[in-house]
């Protein structure tokens, strides 16, 4: 692989789960990867395995230094071709819990918004780039068990669609991918009744393929496309009754 074909990739939320597996896939493909997360020990453990390809930054997206941290990673990597916002939070809220609802919103909306705005504008100035965000199939409808989670993921998916349209309007090769997983075997998956639960490795492989193919929206795993179609056609009154 020539130096010109080596991508500079930043993954926000990569210390474990899908983010970690995505980082390993990009490293295996010969690219340079900037990994972020809140658990420095986990980030360093991966960096120690691939010291020439990985740079790390330990920070919480709910903090005040998101952009300085991302800029620092870009400097260490020597540029940016792809940013994946994979940081996320959600929990069951049997009664609206201010801590759960606010943490969900600050992570999935405010942190997401701040970093994706920066990345999109960076790519506009650069003239090209790729931006992907890990949303959820939960973005398609309200959820009584975790209302802030489904609402925040709806924001992510709608905003990514807006950026996709904006890039088309600007006529620049800036590619947007909205990733909508179903259930994945990570600590984020909570509650009963989970099905079609994928491993982080399988999910990451499908996400990687979708990003490389520059697809706009992808359901993970692929069979969740069927659920998306069902949710899109079911009458609202029936969904609310069944949900």
Defining key terms:
7 strands, 243 residues, alpha/beta, single chain, 7-stranded parallel beta sheet, 16% strand, 48% helix, 8 helices
Question: How would you describe what is shown here?
Answer:
By secondary structure, the protein is of the alpha/beta class. Helix content is 48%, strand content 16%. It has helices spanning 17-28, 40-49, 66-77, 98-126, 147-170, 200-212, 224-233, 236-242, and strands at 8-12, 32-37, 54-58, 82-85, 129-134, 174-181, 217-220. It has a seven-stranded parallel β-sheet, with helices on both faces. The longest helix has 29 residues, at 98-126. It starts with 7 loop residues before the first strand and ends with a helix.
Task: Provide the fold topology.
Blueprint: E1 8-12, H1 17-28, E2 32-37, H2 40-49, E3 54-58, H3 66-77, E4 82-85, H4 98-126, E5 129-134, H5 147-170, E6 174-181, H6 200-212, E7 217-220, H7 224-233, H8 236-242
Parallel strand pairs: 1-2, 1-4, 2-3, 4-5, 5-6, 6-7
Helix pairs in contact: 1-6, 4-5
């Amino acid at each position: 692989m020539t130096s010109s074909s080596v991508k500079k990739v930043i993954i926000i939320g990569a210390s474990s789960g899908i983010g970690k597996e995505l980082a390993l896939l990009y490293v295996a493909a010969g690219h340079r990867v900037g990994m972020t997360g809140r658990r420095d020990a986990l980030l360093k453990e991966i960096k120690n395995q691939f010291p020439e390809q990985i740079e790390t930054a330990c920070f919480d997206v709910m903090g005040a230094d998101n952009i300085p941290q991302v800029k620092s990673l870009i400097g260490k990597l020597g540029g940016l071709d792809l940013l994946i916002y994979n940081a996320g939070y959600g929990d069951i809220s049997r009664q609206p819990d201010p801590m759960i609802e606010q943490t969900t919103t600050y992570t999935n909306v405010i942190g997401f918004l701040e970093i994706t705005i920066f990345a999109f504008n960076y790519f506009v100035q650069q003239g090209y780039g790729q931006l992907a965000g890990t949303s959820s199939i939960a973005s398609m409808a309200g959820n009584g068990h975790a209302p802030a989670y489904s609402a925040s993921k709806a924001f992510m998916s709608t905003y990514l669609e807006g950026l996709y349209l904006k890039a088309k309007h600007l006529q620049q090769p800036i590619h947007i991918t909205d990733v909508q997983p179903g259930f994945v075997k990570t600590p984020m998956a909570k509650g009963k009744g989970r099905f079609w639960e994928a491993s982080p490795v399988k999910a990451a492989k499908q996400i990687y393929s979708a990003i490389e193919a520059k697809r706009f929206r992808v359901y993970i795993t692929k069979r969740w496309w069927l659920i998306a179609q069902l949710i899109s056609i079911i009458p609202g009154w029936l969904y609310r009754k069944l949900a």
